[in-house]
Amino acid sequence: MRHFARGTVLAFGLFASGSLLADIDKPKSDEKPEPEMGGDGKKGFTQKDHEALHRKLSDEAQDNLKKIAELMEKARGKLAQNDTGAATQKEQQEAVKQIQELIDKVGKG
Fold first, then answer.
1. In the chain, what are the domain boundaries?
2. How many Å apart are CA 16 and CA 58, to the nearest integer?
3. What is the pTM of this model?
4. What angle do CA 60, 64, 67 make, to 5 degrees?
5. Which of 6, 13, 37, 80 could form a disulfide with 65 if both were Cys (CB 3.0 to 4.6 A apart)?
6. Closest residue by Cα to residue 9 from 70, 55, 69
C-alpha cells in the first residue's frame, strides 16, 4: 500500500509538472494570442522574463506536490496505526482538495 501511494503521487507529480510546463505557451484554439508584456506591464516580454516565469511556475508546482505528498504520507501513517478519526479524514480531504486545485490549474492551461 505504501508503494502504491508513493507511486501514485510520483506519477501525478510527473504528469502535472510536465503538463504545466508543456501547456504554458500553448494558446487555446478559440483565443487570440495577446501581445506579450513584461513584468512592468509594458510590451517587450524578454526571453529572460519568460524563463523566469517558467521557473516560478515549475517551482510552485513542485512545492504543491511536496505539500500534497506530505499530507498523504501523514494520513498514511495514521491509517497504518488504524487511526481513522476526524483528524485523519481532514488530512485526506485537504490532500484531495489540493490535488483538485492543481488539476483545475493545469486544465486552465
1. 2-21+45-108
2. 10
3. 0.53
4. 140
5. 13
6. 69
